[in-house]
Each structure stands twice: as C-alpha cells, then as structure tokens.
Amino acid sequence: MTSLPFTDLPLPQAMLDNLSAIGYHEMTPIQQQSLPLLLENRDLIARAKTGSGKTAAFGIGLLLKLEPTSFSPQALVLCPTRELATQVANELRRLARFQANIKIITLSGGISIGPQIGSLEHGAHVIVGTPGRIRDHLSKGTLKLDRIQTLVLDEADRMLDMGFRDEIKQIAQTTPSSRQTLLFSATYPDGIQSLSGEFQRDPQMISLEETE
Ligand code: ADP
Ligand code: MG
C-alpha cells in the first residue's frame, strides 16, 4: 500500500500541525484504512499487529469530536492493563496538544482510588482505564458516562482473555446508545465477533495482514 500523508484527510490545520510537530507525517496502513471511516463516525472493528499505530487511529478520531468547554467525560478508552492505559493516555496527550485545555485522566487498578476521585471532581474530557477500576468508580458514583460519544475497546482480544467481558458490558450499559464504538485488536478470536455484536452498530471490519 502506498503511504499517504495525513494532509490527505479533512483534518483541522491545528491537528495537522501538531501531527507534524510530533513527527507523524505519513499514515500507517491501519490509520489510512480506519481514519476515513472513523471521521464519518462509523463503528469499527480494526485488527492490526502490535506497533502499527492503532492508538493514533482512534485517538485522532475521538479527540476531534471533543467539546472542550464541557468537562464531562466524552470519550472512554478501556485497556487490559495499567501499563497499557498509561501508554495510551500519554499518546493521547501528545495528540491532544493541537488544542488547549483537554484533560485526560487515567483510572487503573493497583493504585489507590482516592486521588483518582479527587481528579475526577475537576472534570475531564477523556478517561483511559482498566475495566475493573472504571466499574468501581461507576458503582461508587464517582464517574458518570452519560456524555460518552466515543467508546474504545483497545486490545479487545487481551481484555477478553483476561475475563473482562462482564465489566465491559456493565460499563457500556451506562454510556449513551448513540455513541461510536471502536474495537481495536491485534488478533481476531471468536469472542470478538460476539463482543462486537453486543456493543456495535453496523461495524465496518478492517483486518490487516501480519506484514502490513
Ligand atoms: P499499536 O497500538 O498498534 O500497538 P501504537 O499506537 O502503540 O501501536 O504505535 C506504535 C508506535 O508507532 C508508537 O511509538 C507511535 O508513536 C508510532 N506511530 C504511530 N503512528 C505513527 C505515524 N503515523 N508516523 C510515525 N510514527 C507513528
Ligand atoms: Mg495499542
């Protein structure tokens, strides 16, 4: 596949300038295939190997939909582990530099919940976290997801392996059914299809070969 520059997409100039500032000029194959659909607000199942740039694919899409003046969570990214949630949040913060005042909070297990509650009180645009801890915040009433526009299940195959299916379901049920739901994965086991069937609407499937 010929690689295309980000400037081929209908992205705001500030987003293009920031991508270029962080050294992203050409889209990776998964970005090239998923971004046009993401920007049309389609639900997607996207499978591509680790290291192929999946975070920026869903990140650019969800960041462009944010309403910066509203400090209630508008995008939620679920990740299998604390380390991955931290990595995703850091990448989203880099991508979000095109716009001032975007707040991204990480809510993962294995660290104390008190400071997380404190930072949620100040509001946030994007939440990145692990399913167990997000569910804990929902049951405590310290997190509300009724303004979510984009739900991302990142590394969905690993979340299924780790037995997060029920948590994902409980979390998704508290988000608006009008949301865009994006499922990103490195592999495509059977469970992914039924996960998609439960949470997605007319999803487009993008599956790249190992070599891409
Ligand atoms: P994945 O989620 O598919 O495993 P990541 O989103 O973690 O992949 O991205 C892998 C690496 O590629 C990261 O270091 C990221 O900064 C880099 N990257 C992503 N998109 C681009 C791009 N368009 N140009 C250059 N580097 C990129
Ligand atoms: Mg990833």
UniProtKB/TrEMBL annotation:
Ranges of residues in domain DEAD-box RNA helicase Q: 4-32
Motif interval(s): Q motif: 4-32
UniProt domain Helicase ATP-binding: residue ranges: 35-206
Domain of life of the native organism: Bacteria
Family assignment from sequence similarity: Belongs to the DEAD box helicase family.
Protein name (database record): ATP-dependent RNA helicase DbpA
Organism the protein comes from: Marinobacterium aestuarii
Portion held of the full protein: 1 to 212 of 458
